[in-house]
Task: inverse folding
């Protein structure tokens, strides 16, 4: 028995050595873009079989923490880092990849359409509106038969960029929310059930009749959940569409560090809860092979990768933003040397 | 010689009174023997090192968070807001206690009944047959229980059990509120199923140490089988059964995955069993990988330290009780 | 309650209640096994065992890397935990009748009740942070801590069961102390120790919580000990809490695979001990 174990162990370590020429890049973070990231990494691996990008969707909070502690090679977050967080992660660069929408989904078998006013939404999440047939909801939905049932609120249990986007919107439309739970990747929810990741919240809503939740558009569509119409800044009722997301970004100038909020933006078609999502990468990469591969992947994602966006319910970046990102990427270095300076 | 089928297995084992070996010959001046002795001692002390590492690591990461909030406040405040550096562990402590209490209330009668049935009422063949499914129950991984709980138990609770409880016992705050399936009750039921094998098998062991004559004396005096159990077996085994229950409780307190999947992940304190809640292990599992900042990580590690301290204490007391009950009634206070 | 008939009635009722307890205990077990088998078996295919997970929305894919990952992480755990646990057990049996031995024995008993998530925190601090990455090694360290206490206690008991006459005969023949321990005593107890190891491995294979922030997860095959690694348990968790129905089906199938793995290890352990002590 002992010799066979030895041989097996030897074989395993040899196999390990043999596969060592595969480059493994580890990333972690937002669940918001997970559907498109997982597609990108899979596609890129098909184009470059020796590069494996392993992404764990543990939430934006996790992404920020892990990249700050450098336990992963790149992070991902829909919530831009605060100044305080950036201090702890000196040299970290935000790189927008796609735009997405946070939608409101619910579970009421007979109700396929719903209109929710900003204040009503805030009140539901504050726990002030507790039943589906509350007058505030009924008023905006005269053609819909809302049942006399309790509303089960679903929110995120983990540190989430999606939460950040959602609470950013709520803070803008409800002074009570702003003064209370406020904005953040993790807030003190007055009511509700927690789900882990966008996946978790979608799961909770799907399984609990009478529940309501906020998730990224891709998750709602993949699970065939109807999405609510919201009243935007200009007073129009809009559903989440890619055009609406792009319209939200249209008028907002992009700052140099890419940290921007595009919720509740003016514009006839603008969808009120839209956002950019970011990859978090250090400006100077310290591992030659990984840094080189990572920067090249991001270049690919910003160009060829964008065509996957629409099919998965994300809006591609506006051309102006891509152009800006190109300049940023060209300025990023691997051990002091820029690698993309000559890329088109 | 001990029979192999009662070989200790996992945490169901309770060390029997170790036989004192004859004086092992001290290592004579030869090197290999001394090296062997040293190696063994190092490995033995290694166990102590592991324990020390656990405590020191938990204290290193978690200590500052407790110092920041003050122990009393940490344990009694109920606001957990990492963005504002507010860490109150009360909702998690509450959730852990409530779910464990529900688990015990369900599991204790069933385990005890099962143990009594197998040792006192059923033929010996039944006991050896049934020990197999019980071992099976004990061996099922927590995440599989969680899977079953999420897709089988929760819908049943939401559609049938909780509405029924609400209608019949709804005057109690325990059974009020909307039935969503996820919540304290779901977690409590799953925990009950998970600790059942623990309590049952240790209770069986304890019941088997009750001397036959005790039982027979009661029967000889005309007691029915149940009365014999009630009057002579149970009092004798009482300490051991309490110990078994405490071991089960210890397991319930530390259970993570199954609880995380069905408890609803809501850091609130509510009276109703139908409400979603949170537990100490569940919040650590959900938040640890992404705790932003040292204080947040520290607070979670402090929760771990709390959990560790309580389960260790329980464990010690439980094993003392089980051991005491083995040695006989002279040591067991009536 | 003085009438004989009344007392007999109570007796029957209590007997019935206790029998009911048996049924109650079996219902969840039967339900769980039935569901795992019936819902999981449909998804089992060669692809399921050999492929890596497919991205969101795509069909197919499997848990091949997760199965391998579990074996890998548990393997690392054994490399650390078996020598430590068995060694400590031998120490306790041969030289453990002292205050130090009592302390070690007591510690081992107490350690066996530590919640596995707490062990995960410790492994995170001791391995993940200094190494600056999640790794199979960190997962293995966490699992080894869970294996050590039960291995130590079981080994001690098994070694103490070896007849003293065997040891004395060997010493009388001039065999050195260490050789006696190793080749005579341990070899005799080997079957039981193998059982204990297999049971500890079965338990370790089913752990999830300590792996959540030590070995994390990985979409690809991984042979390196210093990289995040997939595991069956974490994968089941991820599949179960996801909203996609086909992922739920995969969760059941993966659970079936896990149960088969854990079950075979436990069964092998028990069969081994039954054969050995003939």
Result:
């Amino acid at each position: 028995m002992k010799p066979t174990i030895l041989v097996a162990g030897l074989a395993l370590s040899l196999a390990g050595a043999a596969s060592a020429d595969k480059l493994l890049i580890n990333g972690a973070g937002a669940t918001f873009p997970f559907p498109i990231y997982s597609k990108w990494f899979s596609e890129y691996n098909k184009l470059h079989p020796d590069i494996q990008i392993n992404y764990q969707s543990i939430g934006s909070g996790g992404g920020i923490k892990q990249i700050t502690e450098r336990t992963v090679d790149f992070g991902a977050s829909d919530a831009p880092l605060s100044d305080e967080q950036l201090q702890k992660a000196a040299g970290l660069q935000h790189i927008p990849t796609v735009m997405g929408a946070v939608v409101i989904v619910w579970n009421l078998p007979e109700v396929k359409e719903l209109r929710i006013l900003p204040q009503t939404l805030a009140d539901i999440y504050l726990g002030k509106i507790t039943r589906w047939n509350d007058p505030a909801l009924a008023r905006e939905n005269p053609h819909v038969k809302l049942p006399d049932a309790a509303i089960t609120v679903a929110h995120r249990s983990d540190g989430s960029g999606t939460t950040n986007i959602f609470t950013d919107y709520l803070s803008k439309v409800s002074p009570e929310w702003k003064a209370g739970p406020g904005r953040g990747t993790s807030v003190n929810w007055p009511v509700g059930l927690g789900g882990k990741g966008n996946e978790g919240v979608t799961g909770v809503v799907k399984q609990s009749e009478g529940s309501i939740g906020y998730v990224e558009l891709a998750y709602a569509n993949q699970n065939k959940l109807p999405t609510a119409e919201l009243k935007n800044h200009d007073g129009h009722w809009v559903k989440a569409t890619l055009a609406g997301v792009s319209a939200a970004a249209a008028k907002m100038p992009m700052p140099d560090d890419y940290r921007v909020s595009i919720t509740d933006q003016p514009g006839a078609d603008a969808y009120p809860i839209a956002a950019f999502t970011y990859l978090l990468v250090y400006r100077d990469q310290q591992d030659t092979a990984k840094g080189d591969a990572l920067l090249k992947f991001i270049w690919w994602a910003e160009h060829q990768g964008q065509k996957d966006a629409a099919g998965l319910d994300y809006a591609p970046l506006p051309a102006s933003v891509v152009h800006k990102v190109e300049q940023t990427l060209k300025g990023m270095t691997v051990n002091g040397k820029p690698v993309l300076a000559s890329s088109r | 010689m001990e029979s192999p089928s009662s070989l200790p297995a996992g945490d169901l084992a309770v060390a029997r009174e170790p036989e004192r070996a004859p004086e092992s010959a001290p290592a004579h001046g030869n090197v290999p023997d001394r090296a062997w002795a040293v190696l063994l001692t190092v490995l033995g002390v290694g166990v102590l090192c592991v324990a020390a590492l656990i405590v020191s690591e938990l204290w290193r990461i978690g200590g500052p968070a407790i110092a920041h909030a003050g122990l009393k406040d940490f344990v009694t405040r109920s606001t957990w807001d990492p963005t504002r550096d507010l860490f109150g562990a009360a909702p998690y402590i509450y959730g852990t206690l409530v779910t464990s209490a529900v688990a015990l209330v369900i599991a204790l009668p069933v385990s005890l009944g099962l143990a009594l049935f197998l040792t006192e009422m059923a033929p010996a063949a039944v006991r050896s047959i049934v020990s197999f499914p019980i071992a099976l129950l004990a061996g099922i991984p927590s995440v599989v229980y969680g899977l079953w709980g999420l897709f089988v138990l929760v819908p049943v609770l939401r559609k049938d059990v909780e509405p029924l409880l609400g209608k019949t016992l709804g005057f109690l705050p325990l059974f009020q509120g909307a039935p969503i399936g996820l919540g304290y009750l779901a977690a409590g039921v799953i925990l009950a199923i998970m600790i059942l094998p623990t309590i049952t098998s240790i209770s069986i062991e304890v019941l088997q140490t009750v001397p036959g004559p005790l039982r027979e004396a009661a029967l000889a005096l005309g007691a029915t089988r149940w009365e014999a159990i009630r009057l002579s077996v149970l009092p004798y085994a009482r300490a051991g059964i309490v110990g078994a229950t405490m071991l089960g409780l210890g397991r319930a307190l530390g259970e993570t995955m199954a609880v995380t999947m069905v408890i609803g992940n809501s850091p609130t304190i509510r009276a109703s069993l139908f409400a979603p809640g949170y537990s100490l292990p569940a919040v650590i599992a959900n938040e640890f990988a992404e705790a932003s900042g040292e204080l947040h990580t520290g607070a979670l590690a402090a929760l771990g330290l709390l959990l560790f301290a309580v389960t260790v204490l329980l464990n010690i007391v439980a094993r003392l009780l089980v051991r005491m009950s083995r040695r006989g009634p002279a040591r067991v206070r009536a | 309650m003085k009438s004989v008939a009344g007392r007999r009635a109570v007796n029957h009722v209590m007997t019935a209640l206790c029998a009911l307890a048996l049924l109650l205990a079996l219902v969840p077990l039967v339900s769980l096994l039935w569901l795992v088998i019936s819902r999981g078996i449909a998804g089992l295919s060669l692809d399921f065992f050999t492929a890596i997970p497919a991205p969101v929305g795509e069909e197919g894919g499997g848990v091949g890397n997760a199965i391998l990952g579990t074996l890998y992480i548990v393997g690392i755990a054994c490399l650390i935990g078996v020598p430590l646990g068995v060694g400590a057990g031998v120490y306790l049996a041969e030289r453990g009748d002292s205050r130090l031995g009592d302390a070690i024995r007591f510690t081992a008993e107490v350690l066996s009740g530590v919640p596995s998530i707490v062990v995960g925190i410790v492994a995170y601090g001791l391995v993940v942070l200094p190494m600056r990455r999640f790794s199979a090694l960190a997962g293995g360290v966490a699992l080894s801590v869970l294996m050590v206490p039960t291995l130590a206690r079981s080994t001690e008991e098994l070694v103490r069961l070896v007849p003293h006459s065997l040891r004395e005969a060997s010493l009388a023949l001039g065999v050195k102390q260490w050789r006696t321990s190793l080749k005579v005593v341990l070899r005799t107890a080997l079957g039981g120790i193998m059982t204990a190891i297999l049971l500890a491995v079965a338990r370790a294979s089913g752990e999830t919580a300590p792996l959540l922030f030590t070995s994390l997860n990985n979409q690809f095959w991984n042979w390196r000990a210093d990289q995040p690694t997939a595991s069956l348990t974490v994968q089941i968790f991820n599949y179960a809490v996801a909203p996609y129905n086909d992922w739920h089906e995969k969760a059941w199938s993966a659970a079936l695979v896990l149960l088969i793995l854990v079950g075979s290890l436990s069964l092998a352990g028990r069969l081994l001990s039954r054969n050995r002590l003939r």
Remarks:
- The longest strand of chain B covers residues 80-81.
- The beta strands of chain B are 80-81, 86-87.
- The CA atoms of residues 8 and 15 of chain B lie 8 Å apart.
- Residues 90-331 of chain B form a domain with the MetI-like fold fold (CATH 1.10.3720.10).
